[in-house]
Specification:
alpha+beta; 5-stranded antiparallel beta sheet; 5 strands
Length: 141
């Protein structure tokens, strides 16, 4: 059986006011620069919920951009995946981002990025990442 890895999470930004709709456009454009899944990249447009162009009154305080994908043993190339994800984050407005990596052999890893200020601004390089690891199940003898 192949070793499957599941990656999912979300990028959170403060829900912009109608006068701040440029934030939605910047985040949308950053995601639309990702390649399509047909090219088999680590990150693709199809794995993200890409923000709509118009301001939506249905959001309370947070714009949530979720994503997810299934890979064959992505943990062996995890540094490359993280580099591509951080490149995407560097081009977006966001408050925090969370990535869950579920692996069959190594358990679950949770990576969290937080902006140093109230919001990350594209190009500022103002990011901090934290990783937590958990493994469910006992050892078998």
């Amino acid at each position: 059986m192949d070793q499957e890895s599941i990656v999912y999470g979300c990028i959170k930004d403060s829900a912009p006011l109608p006068s701040e709709s440029q934030r939605l456009l910047v985040n949308r454009d950053a995601m639309l620069t990702l390649p399509h899944a047909d090219d088999w990249p680590f990150l693709s447009q199809e794995m993200f919920s890409i923000p709509q162009i118009e301001y939506r009154h249905g959001h309370y305080q947070t714009e949530v951009m979720h994503f997810g994908a299934s890979y064959k043993a992505v943990e062996y190339e995890w540094e490359s995946w993280l580099a591509q994800f951080e490149d995407l984050l560097s081009r977006m407005f966001w408050v925090s981002a969370t990535v869950h990596l579920e692996t069959e052999l190594c358990g679950t890893h949770t990576f969290t990025w937080e902006s140093n200020g109230s919001c990350h601004v594209p190009g500022s390089g103002d990011m901090q990442v934290r990783c937590e690891w958990s493994h469910e199940g006992g050892f078998r003898y």
